[in-house]
Each structure stands twice: as structure tokens, then as C-alpha cells.
DNA sequence: ACATTAATTATGTATAGACATAAAAGAGGG
DNA sequence: CCCTCTTTTATGTCTATACATAATTAATGT
């Protein structure tokens, strides 16, 4: 066979056709797209194949379907972006710089309220409190203060956090189901010394909490001197879909 | 029939069972789950029904499948969060405060590079340059400097931006396909006066660009005095799935 | 005229079977 | 022992059909 046959499965082609029509503006929000039986005639396939394509587009939020009425293009996307929360070590080495970690303090504390208002606090549990400094080429890049619930992550007690960054270790060892990130700007304040900047220097504060079910896992505040670090979020509108 | 039959379709139940097993920790990353023919025996259904459940979990990123080998629980989720990019007016009124908009400047400029490195600049096109101040209860809440491509959005030339916030108007009138957000911390600098704070005050800078296809639409820099504003991102890990 | 009931229609779910495809395991040949 | 070829197996795709469900339209009874 010399012809370059269509490699993509048919349901993916149908899906791509419709997705393209919506993205290009040929189909606008509220428009009705052809009925399943029309599409199956158009593509010469079974209804299940059309249905698979349309079901996928519904899950991706591009279409809405109403029985007896038909299938319609959804209203514009929810205004959200995919924000890559950085693994600091990867971030530093990714810029071709040498990463180093310093453990400034390590304590086991009785569980103060790791989670002030959101979910039930771990009663009687203990908490591992760490302060770390991340360096790039020997220059302070970020300082983090972290609490780890030893009830949720007992293994953390025996890890040598002078070797592994707590964030990387947790990421690899502890799955989480919910996370909250809070991004603020603030002066360096009492961390100015550790960061090697003036007290008034504008810094990016990244507060991050993770849970597994309703059990808190960790709460970390990372402080980046403003000049050295941006958080970047890229978003591809409707095209992105599920993945 | 007095029994409360299972309302959920079977494929959703199968999916929920597996999702639950992964979330609860009964199944860990890398574990193999039963083959399709085992699941169809277990649930007493056809293979297509099992397949639909598993395909959905693959699209949600919970499972990976390899031919001949089987179906496996995926590695921990990609570390991304859904970050709600705020509509400032909604943000202010949502806090029960009175919103007011001031247009500080308005110019039509020849198209300087709206997009320095990413995508092709609009040749010969003109750009609408706006500077706005957002106030909450009469107090400066944010200042934004915005460029709008008049080639992409010719209607913008005739809009009265003393009445409508440019961001809200664009959101309602111009669909976009790609966006990039950059979050930084920086001192207030030359905008200190407009914000009513000291020059050195730590501020949150939100740089935001949107495109439609490869045509730039707008580029805005919004500056928030650090004390008044946080960006919050919530993320529900594996549980959330596609939607 | 109005409420109730029945028919119509598009989508939702499920089935049993078929063939294609990719990857792992096994068999043979050098 | 290494390389190649064949077989096996689980997933990937697709079909044709069936019945369920929800919403609209049409028919009917009072």
C-alpha cells in the first residue's frame, strides 16, 4: 500500500473535526451540531463511534447534550489556568545552575493547628517542623518553613532532610488528594537574613497545603526574592481537553 | 419495586470503585488492576462496559494501559493546580465592597512588540494602550496597564472604558484560545503614587497575555499592593477527574 | 380552553461479536 | 548466547442491535 492511510482512529478524527470547528469559530456557543444519525451518515460509521467522539467532547466540556433536543456547543470555558507549581530542585537545575539544600532547623512539635479553619485538626498528633534554604550556585534562592503531620506521614521522622528536599521526598512518597496554594507578595522581613536580601525586599510567598482525604499532610511557606523567580501559567483554551 | 435500585450506570460504578481503591491507597502507583475479562466476570457485564470505565480513567490520568501487559495505576498526578484568575470587579464586589473604575490614560499607538518572543507580531497594526485604576470603597485596589490589539479587536476602539473594565469587556466579547500568566513580586516603583503606597511596598504583579490562534489579543500587567490581595488556587487531585 | 395521555425522537447505556495492533513470551537457527 | 521469527494475549477500535430515558409534540378527554 503506497497510500498514507489515516493513522488516527475514526472517533478521534470526528472529535478533532468538531473541536476544530469550535476553536476556529465556525461553531459558536449555543449552536447545535448535527444529530448522531447525521454524523454516522456523514462519516459512514456506526452510532457508537459517533457517540464515543461526542461523549469525549462532553467530558472535555466543549459540548452539552439534551435528550430529544440535540447536541450543543457549550458556553465559553471556565476561566482557569494550569499553573505548574515548581519543584525547586528541578527549577534550579533546569536553569543549568547547581542546586544545594541546607537544613536550618528541625523540630518535633505538638500539633498546633496545622489547618486553622478548613479541616479537622489531627488531635494529639505530632508535627515535624523544618526550615530549609535552597541555593542556586551557592546563592540563596528560596527559604521554606514546613510542617509535616507525623500522623499522616510517620516515615518522615526518619528521613535525612539534609540530603533530600522535603518537597521532593513528599511528592515521591505521599499521594495527596487535595491541595491549596496561596500566592502573595510581601517584604522579606525576618527571613531577610537567610535570603541574603534587605528586609524590605519584595518577595513572592507561596503557601501550600496538601491533604489526603480530610487528613492534613503538609503545610509549607516558600519565600522567593522577587527578582529571581516568576510563576508562569500557560493555558490553552478549549483545545486542551481532559488530559 | 420497593428497593432503591442503583441509579448510577454500571460503567460509572466500575469507575468509581477503581477510583476509590486508588484514592484510598488500596491500589498504589504501578499496581496492576484486573484484566478486562476478569472485571467483566466480576461485574457480570460485557467487555465494552468495562472498557468504557477504564478508558475514562485513562483520560482522567489515573490509569495507564499497555497492550499485552495490562492496566496499571499511574504515577502521582502531574503537579498542577487550577488557578482562578480573578475578574477584579467580581473580586471586589464579592468582598462586599464598592467597586469603582478610573481610566487614567488612553492612547492609540503603533504596534510596538506586544509579544516580544513568543508569536508573530501584528505588522502595521495599531494598539490601544490603557491605564486603569480599580478602587474598592474608594481605596486603590489595583492598577493595570493594558495593550489591546486593534487588529484583533477593532471594536475596542469605540468602547467607553470609563464605564466597563477592559478585562470584563474583553472576557465577554473576545474569545481566546491561549493565555499565559506570569506572577512576580516587585516593589511598587513608579506606580506607587497611583496605588497610594510607598515606592518600596511589595506588590503582586500579574502579567497576562491572551491569543486567538497566533494573533495576540491583549497584554495586561496588573499590580496589587501585597497586603490586599492573594491569588488562591485549589486543586483536587486524582478524585476530580476530567471535569 | 386545559389538563392528561400517548406517540415520537435523540440521547444514554449495554451487549456479543469481530478484527486490528502492540508487546511480551516462546521457539529455532546461527 | 544472541538474533530473528512466530505465537500468544490484552488492549484498541468498530459494528449492529436492543432497550431505557427524557423531553417535545400530538392526540385525547373533560
Describe this entry's structure for a reader:
Two copies of one chain form a homodimer. Chain A is of the alpha+beta class and 243 residues long. In chain A, helix 1 (10-24) packs across helix 3 (47-59) and helix 2 (36-43) packs across helix 3. The longest helix of chain A is centred in the first third of the chain and has 15 residues, at 10-24. Chain A starts with 9 loop residues before the first helix and ends in a 7-residue tail after the last strand. Chain A has two domains: 10-73, Orthogonal Bundle (Arc Repressor Mutant, subunit A), CATH 1.10.10; 82-233, 3-Layer(aba) Sandwich (Chorismate lyase), CATH 3.40.1410. Chain A has six helices and eleven strands. The model of chain A is unreliable at 1-5, 76-82, 114-122 and 237-243 (pLDDT under 50). In chain A, 23% of the residues lie in helices and 36% in strands. Chains A and B meet through strand 4, strand 8, strand 9 and strand 11 of A and strand 4, strand 8, strand 9 and strand 11 of B. Chain A binds a DNA duplex (30 and 30 nucleotides) through residues 9-11, 35-37, 45-49, 51-52, 54-55, 65-71.
The N- to C-terminal Cα distance of chain A equals: 34 Å
Q: Any idea what the radius of gyration of chain A is? A: 25 Å
Query: Helix count of chain A, per DSSP?
Result: 6
Considering residues with a beta carbon less than 8 A from a beta carbon on another chain, report the largest interface and each chain's count.
Answer: A-B, 52 and 52 residues
Q: What is the count of distinct domains of chain A? A: 2
Reported by name, the CATH topology of the largest domain in chain A is Chorismate lyase
Task: Detail the poorly predicted runs of chain A.
Answer: 1-5, 76-82, 114-122, 237-243
Oligomer: homodimer
Strand content of chain A: 35-45%
Q: Give the % helix of chain A.
A: 10-25%
What series of H and E elements makes up the topology of chain A?
Answer: HEHHEEEHEEEHEHEEE
CATH architecture assignment name of the largest domain in chain A: 3-Layer(aba) Sandwich
The assigned structural class of chain A equals alpha+beta
| Largest β-sheet summary of chain A | 6 strands, antiparallel
CATH homologous superfamily of the largest domain in chain A - what is it?
Chorismate lyase-like
* CATH top level assignment of the largest domain in chain A: Alpha Beta
Amino acid at each position: 500500500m503506497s497510500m498514507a492511510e489515516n493513522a488516527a482512529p475514526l472517533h478521534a478524527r470526528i472529535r478533532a473535526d468538531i473541536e476544530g470547528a469550535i476553536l476556529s469559530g465556525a461553531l459558536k456557543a449555543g449552536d447545535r451540531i448535527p444529530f448522531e444519525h447525521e454524523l454516522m451518515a456523514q462519516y459512514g460509521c456506526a452510532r457508537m463511534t459517533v457517540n464515543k467522539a461526542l461523549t469525549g467532547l462532553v467530558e472535555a466540556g466543549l459540548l452539552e447534550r439534551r435528550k430529544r433536543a440535540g447536541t450543543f456547543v457549550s458556553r465559553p470555558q471556565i476561566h482557569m489556568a494550569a499553573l505548574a507549581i515548581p519543584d525547586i530542585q528541578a527549577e534550579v537545575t533546569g536553569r543549568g545552575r547547581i542546586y544545594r539544600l541546607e537544613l536550618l532547623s528541625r523540630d518535633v512539635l505538638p500539633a498546633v493547628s496545622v489547618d486553622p479553619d478548613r479541616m479537622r485538626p489531627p488531635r494529639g498528633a505530632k508535627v515535624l517542623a523544618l526550615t530549609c534554604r535552597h541555593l542556586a550556585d551557592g546563592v540563596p534562592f528560596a527559604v521554606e518553613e514546613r510542617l509535616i503531620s507525623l500522623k499522616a506521614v510517620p516515615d518522615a521522622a526518619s528521613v535525612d532532610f539534609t540530603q533530600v528536599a522535603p518537597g521532593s521526598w513528599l511528592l515521591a512518597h505521599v499521594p495527596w488528594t487535595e491541595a491549596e496554594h496561596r500566592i502573595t507578595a510581601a517584604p522579606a522581613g525576618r527571613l531577610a537574613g537567610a535570603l541574603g536580601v534587605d528586609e524590605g525586599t519584595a518577595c513572592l510567598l507561596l503557601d501550600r497545603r496538601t491533604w489526603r482525604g480530610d487528613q492534613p499532610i503538609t503545610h509549607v511557606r516558600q519565600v522567593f526574592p522577587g527578582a529571581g523567580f516568576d510563576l508562569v501559567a500557560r493555558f490553552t483554551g478549549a483545545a486542551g481537553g481532559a488530559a
